[in-house]
Amino acid sequence: MAKTSCVNGHPMWNGDGKPVLWIFRTGYFREYEEKHPNTVLAEDGYVPQIYDLCEDVYKEELDGWYCDECKSVAVFCENTRYDYVLKEKLPEYSYDQTEDWEEYIALRDDDFEDFQEFYEKKKPFDAIQSYRFKYTYRLSPDEKIILAFDQDKKPAFAYELKRFIDFDKQNEEKEEETENDPPFDIEKFCQMAEEEAMQMLGVGLDYSRSSIHLLDEMVLRIRSMYKKKLIDDTVLWNLAVTLGTYYGEVMLKDLLAERGLSWDDSEHPPVLADKGKGTIIKPINTVHHAMFVSEASANNYLWSDYGNIRLLADMYLSK
Ligand SMILES: [Zn+2]
């Protein structure tokens, strides 16, 4: 059983390996019958079924999902997804005016089973043409409108395209995004931390263990600026990255490098880790967290955090 959501956020599912909507393009079966005039459906009551004839055929294998709640339809075709919603006003097209539109049949499971019984030992296109479908559907050339015609060829209802997703394109964009991720430039971030310290406190940072006290002081000030809404979430996070990088560098220089830890920037944000990744220390997350704890806890937060890490390092990490 597979699950997805409709375009309006309702959960949809397809059970027993059956799609909720069986959709077939009529023209495909016309062409198929021309090429394979001897094919008869469900011979001996079994194979081929109509869906066997379009299986793995480029753009002819359509996977349709129907939302019981809002009656929207999702159609998966190759690596794309079309979401159609019911159109309130019926567009003014007659059957004849839509001659050049692509024609489809679409059936819910129960209706499809009736059709299956009907098409036994018939040729596929003949079967489609002679069966009394409740509706036939026509798709506008720009794929934006689906018009349903009843058995008297009168327009009954219409769907309009609300969303189109090209999954291949989406993946390409994602890959580009990751490529454009700024590299983790330790030197640059530390330099930015030094500049911040100079601006905020009028002192430099010397990478000594005791300079963590200065970081604590900076965190307190940043925290209060954030509370007064003088800086926003993005600025707060950027400050956490710069101060956190400096914090991590102090830890490495002071103790953790000799115990086998180094920056691992495959994580976001980067962390300090040993090669086996048994130990992971997250200075950037810790600094960010320190900006949110109560003022009492924020006092000397990083200093006491580092005290704990030193204790753990002495207990567990190889010298
Ligand atoms: Zn829905």
Write the layout of secondary structure elements.
Elements: E1 2-5, E2 11-14, E3 21-25, H1 26-35, E4 62-66, E5 73-77, E6 80-86, E7 102-108, H2 109-119, H3 124-130, E8 136-139, E9 145-149, E10 155-166, H4 167-180, H5 186-201, H6 212-227, H7 233-256, E11 262-264, E12 271-273, E13 280-281, H8 283-290, H9 295-298, H10 301-316
Antiparallel strand pairs: 1-2, 3-4, 3-7, 4-5, 5-6, 6-10, 7-8, 8-9, 9-10, 11-12, 12-13
Helix pairs in contact: 5-7, 6-7, 7-8, 7-10
Zinc ion is lined by residues 6, 8, 10, 67, 69-70, 72.
Note down, in words, how this protein is organized.
By secondary structure, this protein is α+β, with helices and mostly antiparallel strands. The protein has 2 domains: 2-176, no CATH class; 182-313, Four Helix Bundle (Hemerythrin (Met), subunit A) (Up-down Bundle), CATH 1.20.120. The protein is 39% helix and 21% strand. It contains 10 helices and 13 strands. It has helices at 26-35, 109-119, 124-130, 167-180, 186-201, 212-227, 233-256, 283-290, 295-298, 301-316; strands spanning 2-5, 11-14, 21-25, 62-66, 73-77, 80-86, 102-108, 136-139, 145-149, 155-166, 262-264, 271-273, 280-281. The strands form 3 sheets. Strands 3-4-5-6-10-9-8-7 form an 8-stranded antiparallel barrel. A 3-stranded antiparallel sheet has the order 11-12-13. Helix 6 (212-227) runs antiparallel to helix 7 (233-256) and helix 7 (233-256) packs parallel to helix 10. The radius of gyration is 32 Å and the shape is elongated.
